[in-house]
Every structure is written in C-alpha cells, then in structure tokens.
Amino acid sequence: MSRHTRRRSPMKVRLGVAGAGILGAAAVVGAVTIASANEPAHRNGADHAVFVQGNELAGNTVHVFARGDDGVLSAAGTYATGGKGGDQVDAPTDSLASQGSLVYDDRSQRLLAVNAGSGTVTSFRVRGSELTDRQVVRSGGDFPSSIAVSGDLAYVMNAGGSGSVQGFRVTAGGLKPLGGSYRSLGLHNKKVPLFSSSPGQVAFTPDGRDLVVTTKSANTVEVFPIGRDGRPAPRAVVNKSAGGVPFAITFDKSGRMLVAEAEKSTVTTYAVRRDGTLKVLQKPLPNGQETLCWLERAGDFFFGGNTGNSTVTGYRTDRHGKLALTDRVGIATPPSGKSQGVIDLAVTRDERFLYVQNATSGTVDGFRVGRNGSLTKVTTLTGLPPFAESGMEGIVAV
C-alpha cells in the first residue's frame, strides 16, 4: 500500500480502499544493523519465521520473529533496510495501499522489501531468523509498493507518477535490473500517489507466463504476457474489473485467479486466457464487511482483511473452484481491542497459521487454521509501528 499527508477516517466509502524509464543507479551494498538477536542463525534459508515491515519514514526496518511449533512468535531482531518508508496521500489506515510489499523468495532465500520513500528495493539473505548481505537497488520509478517473483524474475510495481513495473533478475547477490523491462501503467499520480488511485498489487500467474496488475480508480485488471527473455509485452491487455476497486490478487490450487475488490468487499474468480484476456468464472461474491483489500490462500481456504471494520473473512473453494464464505456473516474471527485497522495477511508455507497486521493497534495476531477453515488465536505481538504519519505494512510468514 501507499502514502502521504492529510487523512480521512476508514471508509465506508467505496472508492477508497483502506486501503521512468531506465534504472539509473547501481546497487548499494551496506552493513545490516541488528537491534536484537535472541535466536540462533540457521544456514539454509528461512525456518519458521515471520517478517514484518515497519515502513518508518525516517528509516524503514524489517522486524523478525521466530515462530514456535505452536505458532507463538518471539522477537529475533530488527534490521534497517537502508531506505525510507512512505505514506500515500490521504491513506486512511494502510500507508502503502498495496499487497505484496514484503516478499520471501524460497529459491534464492532472499527477502525483498520496498522502500517507498526512497524509490528503492532492499534484498536480504535469510538465514533462519537472521538477515544478512543487505543490497539496495533503485526501483525504476516512484513509490515502489509491491513485488512479485517467479523463478529468477522479480517485478516491482511503482505506484507514483504514471505507475510502472520494472523487472529484475534474482541472483545469489541480490536483484539485477533487467534492461528493456520497464513498462508504464499510464496513470496520473504525483510522485507520492493518492491511495485510491494507486495500483494495488503486481503478481505472476502460477505458470509465470503473465504479470498481472490491479488499478483501483481506473478499475482495471491489466495483464502483461511475459516473453521467453523475461520481458513483458509492450502493452498490457487491459480488462475491466468485474467488481469495483480491484486490489489484491491470489490464485487457487488450479491456477484460477481471485481478485479482492474494496468498493463492495467482493471477490471475483477469473481464468487468465493465453491472450491476456480474463474470463469471469464466478461473479463478485460479497462478504458483508467493509473495505476488503487483502486476500491470501491457505490450501482450499482463503482469508481476506477488511480494514473498514477490522475483521477477517474466511472463504473456501470446492473441487469445482466455486468460492463460498466459511461463515454466513463473513467473519472468521471476531475483532478485539488490540486488533484494530486490519490490513495485510500472511500464511505459513505449511498452511497451518495465519498472521494478520493491525495497523491502528500496531499489533500482529497469529491464528491456527483449523481443518474446516476456522481460526483460533494463538499469539498477539504488540509494540510494532502503528499507523500515524506512516505505519507498518508488509508481512511474510514461513
């Protein structure tokens, strides 16, 4: 999500989501600052950890938590990214107004974080619950807010200005800009965008053949076919969104694409055709909540964050891919006083636990996912950067 200036209260409004050219600079490699380190380092990538992006304006950080077998989290360190966080104009709860601002790539064992206020992206090597080998590169545009990875390709979505996507190769040493991969989204924002007119997320289809971007006020889902050289088609295939204010993107086990729409808190299911056009498989499904912006999969279940009333909705799919609510009123777990301003979500690789960021409270709740999709709270972290001038955004669980 994204950032800056004067604020509105979290919307009932439905157009308010609670959500170039050539890369100039060379990579800057810096030392990593560790605030605390209570867990031993592992040498084979991330292992039962949760990463939370602080998105502080004065200096962005990643907070690391070791995860026990019971899902309970314990602090394991805080690391400076070497860049600055950001806050989109009039953002009511979520400073980056996006999904996918913090990403872990299992293949390269690197954690990727956007620095929206600096126009840069940071990558770390992950060793258990320790982050090392920090590298910082220019994002190729203004206000980077989302990252997608497929194989050795990473694409960064820049939300400011005209909006853009910029490609990188993911290497053992970090991100390397991919020449000729920059594509404009044709938007009309300032360098720091208005949250409701910024793009919501960039994502690869599961087969890696297409790159998908949602745009909120333009109300489109745009598809860039990816060539064998890793570069997008010159122009996106622009699809009108079936629901208002498309935001987050995820996929089911069979590759169907689900898009969360903030205007009426709906989810639409699509097939992505080979030519980049979309076929609606299931019309927008409402959840009865306010301002659905985030959506993540856990097996046959999906969980959505509703920032307007600080709730989490559960969904399930049947063997035909049909989506339904797990609870008829659309609330998978009741909100609490320490769970205000629900934004980003993360599911562990084993799909046993769900972690939810609460921007207003400055907390993260952890839940065990039951066999029927029920959620049982197992932990609550406090003391994270709450939403004010900016606020935490971006969470990864492994």
Give your account of this protein's structure.
The protein is globular. It contains no helices and 32 strands. The chain has a five-stranded antiparallel beta sheet with strand order 2-10-9-8-7, with no helix packed on it. Strands 11, 12, 13, 14 and 15 form a five-stranded antiparallel beta sheet that branches. A hairpin with a 7-residue loop joins strand 3 and strand 4. It has 398 residues and is mainly β.
Give a brief rundown of this model.
The chain is mainly beta and 398 residues long. It has strands spanning 3-7, 28-29, 49-53, 61-67, 73-80, 88-90, 102-105, 110-115, 120-127, 130-138, 144-150, 153-158, 164-171, 174-177, 183-184, 199-204, 210-215, 220-225, 237-240, 246-251, 257-261, 266-272, 278-286, 292-298, 301-306, 311-317, 323-325, 342-347, 353-358, 363-369, 375-381, 395-397.
